[in-house]
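so my prof wants the structure for this chain in the tokens format not the other one, which i didnt know existed until like an hour ago. anyway here's the sequence
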Amino acid sequence: MLLSRHQVLARRERDPERLERSAYLLLSRIDTQGPMSIGQLADAFGLDTSTVNRQTAALLRCGLAERVADPDGGMARKLRITAEGARRLADDREVNRSCLARVVAGWSPEEVRELEDVLVRLNRSAEALEGRHWPRAEDDDAAAACRAPAPQESAAPAARESATPAP
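here's what i got, hopefully its the right format
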């Protein structure tokens, strides 16, 4: 709670352009997952659609998100982050990172890694209890690592290995 309070206070006192908490969360999810409908956002956060509708209306009014046709051809219109929304989200993330960096400034690199590991575990445990997974960039990286390389990708390393003399 103290860490959250520290970031919320930093948000309002230092820069009135900072995003509201709900805007930050919605934009983060859309940024990570791609265009989403209000229903998908409501499901993702476990909120009533009327609540998400009000929150997304504020994003639309501020030009942080826009309505687009479903890229997958569905009937529902989806919300996509705008360039301004992406810029402000990136700015807020950087402020959050710098606030957290100040908090752990006196910690050793090992202590910071330990905190990262425990926070990942805490987040994943909370997600499991709620039954709501938050998509992450590393999920895409892990999925890509599990796919077989395309034939042209696998041929080049093999050619390099055969051309390299054995030690």
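also thought this was worth mentioning. The helical segments are 2-14, 21-33, 38-45, 49-61, 83-103, 109-130, 137-146, 151-163.
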